[in-house]
Design a protein that fits this description.
Helix content is 44%, strand content 11%. It is built from 3 helices and 2 strands. It has helices at 8-20, 36-48, 66-70; strands spanning 27-30, 55-58. Strands 1-2 form a two-stranded parallel ribbon. Strand 1, helix 2 (36-48) and strand 2 form a beta-alpha-beta unit. Helix 1 (8-20) runs parallel beside helix 2 (36-48). It is globular.
Length: 71
């Protein structure tokens, strides 16, 4: 979830720095939104940092597909 205590804002800010420095990465956040304002802020930050091609937020991944997520 995107509760403030998870500090995803700081993570996305750091991912933005990695992008600016040319570091290759991909990030996937899996989990249904449980705190609406947090999800909204997370998506806004991803867009502000130009990470929409490297960061994705999905609500659900079927259990059978989880190994692909963790790979």
């Amino acid at each position: 979830n995107e509760l403030p205590r998870k500090n995803l804002a700081t993570l996305v800010d750091a991912l933005g720095r990695l992008r600016r420095d040319g570091v290759p990465f991909r990030w996937l956040k899996v989990g249904a939104p449980q705190y609406g304002p947090g999800r909204t802020d997370l998506l806004r930050r991803i867009e502000q940092h130009g990470l929409t091609d490297r960061a994705a937020v999905v609500d659900y991944v079927p259990e059978a597909d989880l190994p692909l997520v963790y790979a």
